Amino acid sequence: MGKDHTVKVSVKVKEELALIRRVSGGKATAEDFAAARVLIESKPDIWGKLGDLMDHARGAFLREMNMDEFTRQCAIFRAETMARDLGIEQAGPLDKMLIEHVVLCWLRLGLIELQYTSTMSQSVTLTLGIYMEKRLSAAQKRYTRACESLAKVRRLQSRNPLFNVSVGQVNGGANIAQIALGALVDGLRKGQTAIKEQREVDAMLSEIQPQIKGADTIAESAM
């Protein structure tokens, strides 16, 4: 009985892997896509993790940082600890998204602060100095807005006993859910200014790319 069960599980796993390869490789049929959807819905913990783009973004960011592997693992541990300190393990879906965004913005701000310090400790051109200032300011604003959005949602929780940030589990009707999402509107509006500033930074970056490469070399040597 145990052996037969093992064989059946093995065959099922192979079929699932073959399905994933077909869908990922662009050779899937309509039936394959339907089967893939059923597979995703049957294992939300696994596929939810694979589909978590914020988690992928954080992982990619940490992998691309110029540091030794031990320091990278320490940074990963620090980020995970920060998320736990902010209550991610007990958070509802909306809270969890905001916490993940806060952690990612914090990581990006830390890296840019390090690069700023390393670069500005040397003699740099005015153009490069302005670029580094704008880059740091943009990162600071993103981090501040992420924290403000999380704080606004939590204030709504404390002020309204009907409010539950677990999306899909809101007591009191759809209007309360709309209030929760409305807490983010102010931050999104402020984000328009940050996007404009980021475009200015990108335009400046294209003009001083050779100097930026030199700055990255300075930062690497400092680390």
Please give a quick description of this structure:
Helix content is 81%, strand content 0%. The chain is mostly helical. 16% of the residues are buried.
What does this 3D model show about the protein?
This protein has 223 residues and is an all-alpha fold. It has a domain at 92-222. Helix content is 81%, strand content 0%. The chain contains ten helices and no strands. The protein has helices at 2-24, 30-42, 44-50, 53-64, 69-85, 93-120, 126-159, 174-182, 185-207, 209-222. The radius of gyration is 23 Å and the shape is globular. It starts with a helix and ends with a helix. The relative contact order is 0.08. Residues 165-177 have low confidence and may be disordered.
The largest pleated sheet is described as: none
Given the C-alpha coordinates, what overall shape results? globular
Task: Please tally the helical runs, counting DSSP H or I stretches of 4 or more residues.
Answer: 10
Helix content: over 70%
Mean pLDDT: 75
Question: Which series of helices and strands comes N to C?
Answer: HHHHHHHHHH
Strand segment count: 0
- Derived from helix and strand composition plus strand pairing, the structural class reads mainly alpha
Quote the beta fraction.
under 5%
**Radius of gyration, Cα only, in angstroms?**
23 Å
What is the end-to-end distance? 58 Å
| Low-confidence sequence ranges | 165-177
